[in-house]
Specification:
Blueprint lengths: L2 H15 L11 H8 L3 H13 L3 E3 L5 E3 L9 H20 L4 H14 L4
Antiparallel strand pairs: 1-2
């Protein structure tokens, strides 16, 4: 997985867990690059993807802020995109040998890990 996607996933988890909260400013791209030891362009790409997902708002010449998209209902396009991505993961897992009982156990473990599920 590309580094920018790894950072996106890590930040999404932090938002979901409440470590990063609504309205809270994010570190600048430069600060995040230093904290994560990633290239400035990698962090910029991560922030841009979070912005496209509706989780981050950036103003010109200003810091980025966490915004809460899930406060409003998902539209059909969002649900369809989630469905496509989930299906891809499940099909790949099956091809790699994951069976139904193993999948159920994984989902149970993940659900216990995150109180919001």
């Amino acid at each position: 997985m590309p580094l920018y996607k790894q950072l996106v996933q890590q930040l999404i988890v932090e938002i979901a867990k409440g470590t990063l909260k609504y309205g809270e400013p994010m570190p600048s791209i430069r600060e995040m690059a230093m904290q994560t030891e990633l290239n400035l362009h990698t962090v910029h790409k991560s922030y841009k993807e979070l912005q496209m997902k509706g989780l981050l708002k950036r103003k010109p010449n200003s810091k980025a802020f966490i915004i809460m998209q899930h406060a409003s209902p998902l539209n059909n396009m969002d649900v369809q995109q989630i469905s496509i991505e989930l299906e891809q993961v499940l099909v790949e897992a099956y091809v790699l040998g994951l069976r139904k009982n193993q999948l159920q156990q994984l989902l149970s473990n993940i659900s216990q890990k995150y109180s919001f599920l």
